[in-house]
Amino acid sequence: MRRKRIWSAAAAVTLAMASIAAGCGDDDDNGDSGGGGGGGGGDVGKVAVLLPDSKSSVRWETVDRPLLQKALEAGGVEATITNAEGDKSTQQQQAEQAITNGAKVILLVNLDSGSGAAIAANAKSQGVKVIDYDRLTLDTDANDYYVSFDNEEVGRLQGEGLVKCVGDKPDAQIAVLNGSPTDNNATLFKNGYDSVINPKFDAGEWSEVDDQSVPDWDNQKALTIFEQILQKAGNKVDGVLAANDGLGNAAISALKQRKLPQIPVTGQDATLEGIQNIVNGDQCMTVYKAIEREANAAAELAIALAKGEEPTATTVPIDNGTHKVPSILEKPVPVTKDNIAEYFGNPDYPTKEDICAGKVAANCEKLGL
Ligand code: BGC
What does the alpha-carbon distance between residue 187 and residue 155 come to, in Å, rounded to a whole number? Predict the structure, then answer.
């Protein structure tokens, strides 16, 4: 008897809470029940951004986060941005939490395709749209859009940059530091630079000292890997194809620890550290990706979807192994010591003041910066 009364009281409270939630969530129907939501009404769903980590590249926290926040807010949607710090189950929980809190769109930077596909499938089952941000999730039908750069082009620019910096040094000994094997971008970067540097190996103009992938783009692991490469090669390395600025900096640190002379090292992301390395002559090039354009394109899609509208952006179809994902790909550009100043003033590019601070000032002056 007693038990029954408690149950029904609890049920009444639950019911009351549910109706309060339904009543004050939005002004009219908030699509809570069906999961489909949308349909062009006045409702604006929330957008959740899931960033991967803060160590594989400084870009995620220092550039992507503020630019996405700004673009989404400007579009009048409520955005929550979380960072999984490299932990796949954390990212999965962040996705679930976001959906529970009313997210209707997820902007996902996956930690690998398997966990990304699980997040996307769960989202889809609840009527939540998924935009792959920067990294394509392979082998799923649950991603609705993909926004990134032409990542093979990124790799080609790295390969061409290395060819220019190494010049005509005979039998140059080249080491390759690839990104994380779990990141589809790392595969695309490699396809790009291999298309440029493999012919040099095949022609016997260059020799490949080593070719190693760096798990999770972990800079610390890259340092150890490159240490071992130097050890094995008796320090005879004449150039490094490093897939991003963090990996490049790891190679530079290892060279400095051994007091070896500067050699051409590539990079990507136009980070403050990467550009300072270029100014100091430790790095030969980086690839600048206008992240503001990437963030704005992704935000525009997310805002339309959050409002239940059909996005109007022009897309190209990219095959992810399961379906053709409507995609927007921005163009990357190379940065060497000769064109560092070209992008000053862009919100996704380091400032001259930051680059030329402290000990770098003298070298900036030499470059006329
Ligand atoms: C991104 C790069 C970044 C790397 C490590 C890649 O997927 O495209 O910009 O440097 O991940 O975070």
Answer: 9
Strands 239-242, 79-83: pairing kind: unpaired
What are 312-346's pLDDT values in tens digits?
Answer: 999 999 999 999 999 999 999 999 999 999 999 99
Give this prediction's pTM.
0.89
For 209-244, how does the pLDDT look when each residue is reduced to its tens digit (9 = 90+)? 999 999 999 999 999 999 999 999 999 999 999 999
* Cα separation values, 172 from 176, 206, 219, 226, Å: 13, 5, 25, 17
Q: Rounded distance, CA 187 to CA 66, Å?
A: 28
For 119-136, the pLDDT digits (tens) are 999 999 999 999 999 999
Residues near 218 by beta carbon (within 8 Å), at least 6 away in sequence? 55, 56
Looking at residue 43, its pLDDT comes to 79
In sequence order, which residues have a C-beta less than 8 Å from that of residue 227 and are 6 or more positions away? Answer: 254, 257
Nearest CA to 278 among 252, 250, 247? 252
The residue whose two tokens read 């409520």 is 78
Regarding the beta carbon of 56 and ligand 1, being less than 6 Å apart is answered yes
Residue 347 CB partners (closer than 8 Å, separation 6+): 67, 292
Q: What is the mean pLDDT of the chain?
A: 91
Round to whole Å and give the CA distance between 251 and 274: 12
Rounded to whole angstroms, the Cα distance separating 249 from 266 reads 9
269 lines ligand 1 (CB under 6 A): yes
Nearest protein CA to atom 3 of ligand 1, as residue: 57
Q: Quick one: how far is CA 250 from the chain centroid?
A: 19
Percent of the chain having pLDDT more than 90?
88
Rounded-to-10 torsion of CA 242, 246, 251, 255:
140
| Cα–Cα nearest to 76, from 37, 105, 47, 41 | 47
Ligand 1 site, residue 57, Cβ cutoff 6 A: yes
